[in-house]
Specification:
The chain has about 120 residues and is mostly helical. It has one domain. The longest helix has 21 residues. The mean pLDDT is about 90.
Length: about 120
């Protein structure tokens, strides 16, 4: 995995995944843009006082974007279904990524405080 050093590098990896998916997924570019607008707003609002409120939302945007790249190759899902799945599943993304069953109690970590 490439270590990302800038916001542009971060965004480019998601844009490339959409570009490679073809014309049928072009509608998802609007969803990608919306998530990056939210991410930009969150980054601009972060401060020492707001960190604990903003960071979980940043994790949420990251989970949504990562789920997007994981779901776009599935031709069985329409664009609308992909967005619905993302919006439903993103709060548990990191928990599942770490191997937790959704019923299991997770460890105290910022990674599990997704909003």
């Amino acid at each position: 995995m490439t270590k990302l050093k800038t916001k542009n590098e971060y965004r480019e990896q998601f844009q490339m995944a959409l570009d490679q998916a073809g014309k049928e997924r072009i509608m998802l570019t609007a969803y990608l843009d919306m998530q990056f607008q939210k991410l930009n707003q969150l980054i601009e609002s972060i401060s020492q006082e707001s960190f604990w409120q903003v960071f979980p939302e940043i994790l949420g945007v990251d989970a949504k974007l990562t789920l997007l790249t994981e779901l776009i190759p599935f031709d069985d899902f329409s664009n609308e279904e992909i967005i619905r799945i993302i919006e439903n599943d993103y709060p548990n993304y990191f928990k599942e990524l770490c191997g937790y069953d959704l019923k299991m109690k997770d460890k105290p970590s910022m990674i599990f405080s997704v909003l």
